[in-house]
Amino acid sequence: MAKQVFINLAVKDINKSMEFYTKLGFTNNPQFSDDSGKGMVWSDDIHVMLLTHEKFASFTAKPLADTKTYIAGLYSLSVDSLDEVNRITQAGLDAGGTEPNELRDYGFMQQRTIEDFYGHTWEVFYMDMSKLPTEQPAA
Fold it and tell me: Are the CB atoms for 119 and 68 separated by under 8 Å?
């Protein structure tokens, strides 16, 4: 079996969350979906599980973080162009997400941030490897 990444996110409104992630470009996998969780697919190797708080809590003894107040993780998605970065971010904004800061341009990489309704933070970025600096700055 190929190595894959499955990110599990606790959400309050599973259908509203599924709609948001669909607008970002994820597709629903009904094989891994029910009333307590929705399997969302970014690519063959990257999946996001949207889980109700009750379902998520069944996997851990720790209390759930309030991700609107505290950061629990940064999730990054690479795309093929700056236009795609902008399209995905705008789709997230149109779906009710927020953009906590402006586009960051590192020369070889442009990055925008989108947060869902619960504060789960996604970095959408395009990296042009031909612009990657070849020399490391002196320490």
Answer: yes
For residue 37, CA distances in Å to 50, 80, 96 come to: 5, 29, 21
CA distance 56 to 10: 6
In order of start, what are the domains of the chain with their CATH numbers? 5-130 (3.10.180.10)
114 touches 26 (CB < 8 A): no
Name residue 44's beta-bridge partners.
Answer: none
What digits encode the pLDDT tens for the residues 24-59? 999 999 999 999 999 999 999 999 999 999 999 999
Name beta bridge partners: 48: 7, 40
Residue closest to 39 by CA, chosen among 55, 62, 18, 53: 18
Q: CB-based burial of residue 86 (10 Å sphere; 0-12 exposed, 13-18 middle, 19+ buried)? A: middle
Q: What is the pTM of this model?
A: 0.84
Per DSSP, the three-state class of 112 is strand
